[in-house]
Specification:
Elements: E1 5-6, H1 9-23, E2 30-37, H2 43-56, E3 63-65, E4 71-73, E5 84-88, H3 93-98, E6 110-116, E7 122-129, H4 135-146, H5 167-184, E8 203-209, H6 212-226, H7 231-249, E9 257-264, E10 279-286, H8 294-310, H9 313-324, H10 329-338, E11 348-354, E12 361-362, E13 365-373, E14 382-389, E15 392-400, H11 406-421
Parallel strand pairs: 5-6, 11-14
Antiparallel strand pairs: 1-4, 2-7, 2-13, 3-4, 6-7, 8-15, 9-10, 12-13, 14-15
Helix pairs in contact: 1-9, 1-10, 5-9, 6-7, 7-8, 7-11
Length: 423
């Protein structure tokens, strides 16, 4: 890693979320991938492979530093390597791993936990700091770690796939985002907030798995309502209806719901640059009257997406993120939340589509199942990530115990499942 690489705009946003969560007493903005393997693997072989990759890519042991325009600071020669820990499966272990923080300030950007199970099987939990890379990059990185027949990415990686625009042009683009938020706060969103202050400050998750037959039904419903390429729109609309229902059930109505939809910035089919976030957020808003049916929600979502494409709002989001990197994190977060009067968003949403087909094996063992786990800030305290593994749809719903009970999150997940399957 020659010199010092600056964080790109989305890296900086994820660093901001990490700061916000840690300030509130949570583990931080860490995401996870869990693999279920048919047999145990060697921890030493995994450590050797990680050491090889960390030597080739020093960013894997770097730490974000700098008050203004933060950069990845080059690690020292004797910096510790990422951890590979071995556990015997027991009750509560998965939750413990989920809530154990990383230490990005000391260069701990990821770790692997190997969980030995009865019958000789093993689960691998990969935890990474979201400021390092996005979910699609993380999938590819896990495949790189678990297989030595995949070409390694280039040593020197650019921080952006798009050329920088002149400053004045970026400022004009950024103003478009400001005007959009001005429209949003005419019906300001309100998250549920802390309802259980004595609950532990931890995150929990549940996974809804769809069979091949059920996945085919969901895709047919998506095509019927959104068109052939509207799967992500269908998922988002269904999630927002269920979020509205959840607010109604617990007696916490909101004047609107604001949903950031991630938009990939990489060239189609590419995973590089690997060690940074190549996404921006397309902001959308729903009013309660839009959330009676999935078709009605999609009818509101589609024009917003079309407007974002037509008016350059995606480029505007990139510009805002890029300009924000020159701000101290506390000031950046204050400005970010002030746009929605103290809110960040109403729901954290991700849709990574098909898991990379490279993840068929890991360190010689067959991969039987795959799980994505996202992270959510204290506001809104709930989110979901959609993905498909070997053609089968998965939805992971994650929530904070200070905001929602496990029963409420499970009811949300079951309602979302039913809505996806039944128009």
């Amino acid at each position: 890693m020659p010199g010092e690489l600056p964080l790109n705009g989305c890296d900086f946003l994820m660093l901001g979320f990490d700061r916000e969560m840690r300030r509130r007493g949570y583990a931080g903005n860490s995401c996870q991938i869990e693999l279920e393997l048919d047999s145990a693997i060697s921890p030493d072989a995994l450590r050797k492979r990680i050491a090889e990759l960390a030597t080739r890519h020093p960013i894997l042991r770097a730490h974000p530093g700098g008050w203004l325009m933060p950069k990845w600071k080059i690690p020292q020669e004797n910096s510790p390597l990422p951890q590979v820990r071995v556990h015997r499966e027991h009750s509560g272990l998965r939750e413990k791993i989920c809530d154990e923080p990383l230490s990005p300030k000391r260069g701990e950007l990821f770790r692997f936990d190997l969980v030995e199970r009865d019958g000789g099987r093993m689960n691998v939990v990969f935890t990474w700091a979201h400021m390092l890379m996005d979910a699609n990059s993380a999938e590819h990185f896990v495949a790189l770690v678990g297989r030595d027949d995949i070409p390694l990415p280039a040593l020197e990686q650019p921080i952006s796939t798009r050329p920088k625009k002149p400053l004045m042009e970026r400022l004009k683009l950024a103003r478009k985002s400001v005007l959009l938020f001005d429209e949003f706060i005419k019906a300001p969103p309100r998250s549920v907030g802390v309802r259980f202050p004595d609950a532990p400050k931890v995150q929990r998750f549940c996974v809804e798995r769809f069979s091949l037959e059920e996945t085919t039904r969901v895709r047919a419903n998506a095509s019927k309502v959104c068109g052939a390429l509207g799967g992500a729109q269908f998922h988002a609309a269904a999630a927002m209806i269920e979020l509205h229902q959840l607010h109604q059930r617990i007696g916490s109505p909101s004047a609107s719901y604001v949903l950031p939809m991630p938009v990939g910035l990489r060239p189609k089919g590419s995973v590089e640059p690997l060690f940074c976030n190549q996404v921006t957020m397309m902001m959308t808003q729903f009013l309660p009257r839009h959330l009676d049916t999935t078709a009605a929600a999609v009818a509101v979502l589609k024009p917003q997406i079309a407007q974002a494409m037509r008016d350059g709002l995606i480029e505007a989001g990139v510009a805002v993120a890029d300009i924000s990197r020159c701000l101290p994190l506390p000031l950046y977060l204050f400005i970010l939340k002030s746009g929605l009067r103290g809110e960040i968003c109403s729901f954290f949403y991700g849709d990574t589509a098909a898991v990379t087909p490279l993840l068929t094996t890991f360190c010689g063992a067959t991969v039987l199942d795959f799980t994505h786990v996202g992270a959510t800030t204290p506001s809104p305290g709930i989110g979901a990530i959609f993905y498909s593994f070997r053609g089968e749809l998965r939805v992971t719903v994650f929530h904070l115990e200070t905001h929602f009970t496990a029963a409420e999150a499970e009811t949300f997940a079951k309602g979302l499942r039913s809505r996806l399957l039944n128009l």
